[in-house]
Amino acid sequence: MANKSNQLIVPQATQALNQMKMEAAQELGVQLSPEGYNGNLTTREAGSIGGYITRKLVQIAEQHLSGGQR
Prior knowledge:
The protein is mostly helical. Helices cover about 55% and strands about 0% of the residues.
C-alpha cells in the first residue's frame, strides 16, 4: 500500500489547484493530457509548472496578508 503524503488539508481546494495547473501549463506552453496522466512530461516541464504555481500561491498569500492592497 502506497503512503500518499501529498494530501490536501482543504479538500475543496482540488478544483482551484487543478485550474491553476492548467493555467500554468497554458502560460508556459506545456501540453497537459486531458485524461489526467502526464507521465510524458519532462522533469523541466513539470518543475516549471510547479514553480509557476508556487509563485502564484506566494503572491496570493502576500496579497492576503497585506489586506489585499497592491
